[in-house]
Amino acid sequence: MPQNSICFMPQEVDKSANLTKEKIIFVTDKKGYLLLCNTKAALTIGVPMEQLLHLNMRELIRNGNINTSYTLQAAENQRIERGLVTTKFEAELLAISTPVFDNKGELLYLLTSCVPNPSRKVTPSNNPGLKSVQTGTFRGLVLAPENIVAESSAMKTILRIASTVSQTDSPIVLYGESGTGKEVLAQYIHRQSKRSARAFIAINCAALSESLAEAELFGYDKGAFTGAQAQGKIGLIEAADGGTLFLDEIAELPLALQAKLLRVLEAGEIRRVGSCVNRTIDFRLIAATNKNLKQMTEEGTFRQDLFYRLNVLNLVLPPLRERPEDITMLALKFLKNFNIKYNLNTNLDINTLTTFQQYSWPGNVRELRNEVEKYVISNIQDNSNQFLAAMSGMAKQISQPNCDYIDSQENYGPLKQAMRQFEEQYIDSVLRVCNFQMGKAAERLGICRTVLYRKMKAFSEAKRTHL
């Protein structure tokens, strides 16, 4: 990891962040009984976690904890429902309830997420800059066109930091494994910035032809070289004037071009190939890489002066295996997109979602997206299982979960029983990722440590009962 820089790690906590910005998440069965929820839900509704998990949404309305339930509406209408909910503490929330069906179209459960109503005025604070930060964060988390999934605390922290640094013009370097979504985050920063109305130019440095890279980046005047267009051509860097330039895989940029890029950053000027005229240019640079630039400078494969020019703000995107809370929501987001693209109505069953949770995802979000697309396309085939077996490499690598209660039609049981088993498997997968550190696992699950211990004890007692 590069030294002597402002480096934001996902584990850092934004002390100034308002806790009410965290999403309230809960899962109910088709009758409205709560199966899963996070600690934020219990605190906001005003019911202890151990009591909340035994209640029905209708009881919460009767008790005055909430004034209405879009979960019940989504269950009745079997479609996504959204609207405003007021809690007993007069907090106004924007709720979105999404029904989840099995392959036969039967309603399995409902997933509901709530955030503070972004249109409601924020109470003035002693911190004069807090209101603008809150408004920007709400706009990013709730209304952003990218609709970035951020259920994990790591991604929530990254989005808060990204929303803050987007208001500056300092260079940013995004570090992370391939497929973690660095370009999506770069677009998010651009759309939150004052440059959002101008161009966002993305360049993959690894895809640049070495012989034509300079002309592609800096442009050229007419007659600059054999084969050049008669009228000349604007370069990609110049096209980003007034906007944001995103250099993906910047570690692959040839050393000669690194020197020219440094000159552009230092002087704010660009010179086309074959020209003797400097053109003033103004853009915000965001770079991304899956390599250690500091180490590359020591090895002589990346210019030291360019590294220190870029090394102002760093954001580190965690791999998908370190934020399992995001997997299900990402899968559902991709499912919705591909259903629209292929004009289908495919659903992800619990078995598939559990399998996704147990996989290590070496290809990160990109691999998850591809697997969901294969899953959706497989439903066009007469035999979807054979199609997936032939097309999906993941199916050969993953250790299938023990989901006999789902796979065997003879063993279909009550939905509550299935959800309890799913909950146990999910908690077990998070514990494994956290090396069975109960505090860390509880934080990732969004529940209190005591609640996690109580659930583990209940799972153990249930197993002894069935022996």
UniProtKB/TrEMBL annotation:
KW Transferase (keyword) present: no
Gene3D superfamilies for the chain: 1.10.8.60, Homeodomain-like, P-loop containing nucleotide triphosphate hydrolases
Superkingdom of origin: Bacteria
InterPro entries tied to this protein: AAA+_ATPase, AAA_lid_NorR, Homeodomain-like_sf, HTH_Fis, P-loop_NTPase, Sigma_54_int, Sigma_54_int_dom_ATP-bd_1, Sigma_54_int_dom_ATP-bd_2
Record key words, sorted: ATP-binding, DNA-binding, Nucleotide-binding, Transcription, Transcription regulation
Ranges for domain Sigma-54 factor interaction: 148-377
Record-linked PANTHER family: SIGMA L-DEPENDENT TRANSCRIPTIONAL REGULATOR YQIR-RELATED (PTHR32071:SF121), TRANSCRIPTIONAL REGULATORY PROTEIN (PTHR32071)
Protein name according to UniProt: Anaerobic nitric oxide reductase transcription regulator NorR
Source lineage: Bacteria, Bacillati, Bacillota, Negativicutes, Selenomonadales
Gene that this sequence comes from: norR_10
